Amino acid sequence: MNRRIALVSQLVGLLVLVSASLVRAESDRPNVIVVLADDQGWGDLSLHGNPNLSTPTIDSLARDGAQVEHFYVCAVCSPTRAEFLTGRYHNRMGVYSTSAGGERFDVGEQTIADLFRQAGYATAAYGKWHSGMQWPYHPNARGFDDYYGFCSGHWGNYFDPMLEHNGQIVKGKGFIIDDLTDHAIDFVSQAGDKPFFVYLALNTPHSPMQVPQEYWDRFADKELVPDPAPENAKRQNTPHTRAALAMCENIDDNVGRLLSHLQTSGKADDTIVVYLSDNGPNGSRFNGGLRGHKGSTNEGGLRSPCLVRYPRQIKAGSVVESIGGAIDLLPTLCELAGVDWAAKQLPGKPLDGRSLASELTGGAPSDASRILFSHWRNRMTARTQRYRYHGSGELFDLANDPGEVTDVSGDHSELATRLAGQLDAWKSSWAGSGDQDARPFPLGHPDATWTQLPARDAIFTGSIERSNRFPNCTYLTHWVDTTSEITWDVDVLDSGRFEVQLYYGCPQADVGSTIELSLGDQRIEATIQTPVESPLVGAAEDRVPRQEGYVRWWQPMTLGVMQLAPGRQTLRLRATDVAGSQVAEMRLLMFRRLE
Fold first, then answer.
1. 454 and 504 belong to one structural domain
2. Residue 53, class by beta-carbon neighbours within 10 Å (0-12 exposed, 13-18 middle, 19+ buried)?
3. Is residue 112 a contact partner of residue 125, using CB atoms and an 8 Å limit?
4. Strand pairing of 31-38 and 196-205?
5. Model pTM?
6. Are 272 and 32 in contact (CB under 8 A)?
7. Do 421 and 493 belong to one domain?
8. Taking the CB of the first residue and of the last residue of the chain, which one, N or C, has fewer CB atoms within 10 A?
9. How confident is residue 97, by pLDDT bands cut at 50, 70 and 90?
């Protein structure tokens, strides 16, 4: 009996030790914060020799951690986001543009947030999503427990803007970058002892060029040192550059607030912090002499900062010499955090990325024969450890010519031929994948309470016009008759009853028009009874003239309740009576599930 008691006691003790070990293992898992800037070039940091601004906090990530010396993203925003989130080239996933549905990566893809959430992490995304607005493309459907920001490619106002929180329209507080950082800090505080994964997708220095006064005052009259590349210096728009640099210094201060919070909360040593941008600079400015900018497949359009701080494992001042890219962050962060991504890899969807964890933590460089590929707007390029080959046939020796000035394809014809073949083979591996595939916009997903259908995703006829040629944050105007229509190609994913609201603007003189919304045999009708008068918002805050359109302070009105049935259909909005000189200006429809 005593032996039995002793054995039970030993087993209980062993279980306690195992349990303690498991708890310890969970508490030892690092937190992860990924900060992604928007349109900030490789040269927009004082770390990289730019004498025109000071970014000491972002620079400190390299001092206290590591920098990936040659790190590459895509030529524009949404492809980079898709590649970071999935570890796969965007071409394989149906991403072919930056708006009107082409920014969405396929539903069947698995995201880095999915993997971390499955591993027990609290997950959050704050800022510019730019990978789809409706479920199942919405961030809450892509592995993020909490989301606050906007899902479009750009936004029209950065001060107290209209945003969303987990699908519901809300109003932001103050300057958007400060506000997004506040949410990240709050999430870190609320996580307690649970490990967290935070994706802080800041939307500056993307235009419109708005920044708080204190930052603008530093640059409004500042003399700027030109880029060493004559072409960049010649094409520089100095007022625009001053605004961009002011925005970059605001980002630096917000990164500083985030790092300070990690320090005071005792989480700094146990948190991996990554900093990168989504493409080259949104204009010709100082970029270390690199050729090209946003939209280009040259070095200047693709090279990004990549700074990684993790005091527990990464030695201060480390430099990763091997080439890396946005596709590498998923396997790298998973390996550093002990998340087994390989065991959860989806059939038929192998990663294109490779883990840089070993080299970040002092291991040997990775495969020197690796090639990184990029494609945008019929331009393709292949980057080896030393050379960049373009689909046009040009070859540049970046070790000796980082500005891509001298084509050396004639001197290295065998290499150029080999890279041309590998570039063709890569293109063949994804050719036709979701290219301009006209996918409908999902409506009524069973897991979504809210579904937005914005003006940017609409098709319109008759007199109606878009407020600006860049669709992302636009509204529809010149709606003056009963023959014009606004339509959406929708795929209703689940049946149910939905309250429908219209976000609109309408001056007092035009109140009284009646509008009808129809889907199949369902129709609801409402009369505009309340004026929503708002001046155009944004001009007073712009530091330089913008290309994008301005916005208004939109307000909702309830159109009624619709019973939706599954299937692909056309949602139609039209006026049945026009009371004044116009019906209204239309920003978006919001569907709210009632059950």
1. yes
2. buried
3. no
4. parallel
5. 0.94
6. yes
7. no
8. N
9. confident
Other residues' Cβ atoms within 10 Å of the Cβ of residue 540: 9
Q: Bridge-partner residues for 524, per DSSP?
A: 517
What is the SS3 assignment for 49-86?
A: CCCCCCCHHHHHHHHHCEEECCEECCCCHHHHHHHHHH
Residues pairing with 359 in the sheet: none
Average the pLDDT over 220-241 and give the result. Answer: 95
Same-domain status, 451 and 400: no
Residue linked to tokens 């970014």: 55
Q: Are residues 47 and 146 in the same domain?
A: yes
Sorting pLDDT into bands at 50, 70 and 90, what band is 13?
very low
Tell me, yes or no, whether 399 and 528 share the same domain.
no
Instruction: Enter the tokens of residue 247.
Output: 């925005």
Encode pLDDT of 145-200 as tens digits.
Answer: 999 999 999 999 999 999 999 999 999 999 999 999 999 999 999 999 999 999 99
CB neighbourhood size of 433 (10 A): 16
Q: What single-letter amino acid sits at 209?
A: M
Mean pLDDT for the chain overall: 93
Query: Among 95-104, 209-218, 363-372, 427-436, where is mean pLDDT lowest?
Result: 427-436
Structure-block tokens of residue 361: 């933590």
Provide the domain limits for residue 508: 441-593
